[in-house]
Amino acid sequence: MMKRKILFSGIAAGAALFLSACSTTFAPAELNESDSGRTLTLKVGERFTISLPSNPTTGYAWSFDAPYDEKVLILSSDTFANPEAEGVTGAPGRRILTFSVVGPGRSGIRLGYKRPWERNSRPARVFQLLVFATGESPAPLWEEEKTSTPRIGSKGQVVPERKGVFD
Hints:
Elements: H1 2-22, E1 25-26, E2 30-31, E3 38-43, E4 47-54, E5 61-66, E6 73-81, E7 93-101, E8 105-114, E9 125-134, H2 141-144, E10 151-152, E11 158-159
Parallel strand pairs: 1-3, 2-4, 3-9
Antiparallel strand pairs: 4-7, 5-8, 6-7, 8-9, 10-11
């Protein structure tokens, strides 16, 4: 009986380890080009960064190939960093996009590295990501700060909030 429990525990632990290794869901703070095609699961309020190699002086730039759902994600920051050669014109660097999760749902992000004037050509490189957001949306500011303001009619008189008050 004891051997069965140990064997079952070993099989269960091995299966859990195998399934976790096969999962494409992870939550790093910074993603790079090798993370393309992954799935990211985050909670509302969390942030993540995508850092991609870029050299805008060649004419190539990362651009959004498809819209993402702004009810789920917002782009908080978009910067270019040149860590290798600070201040050297024409040197390659990294485009750093920071996103905030603002609501539950799912959204894809698809970026293409291409020259903007070559409209019918395929991107030289593609980065894509699927984001699943869990949790609840925060209450909008306008509902938290809502106050009752009287309606004013065309002659300056206060108008009742609902019709039919004089019946």
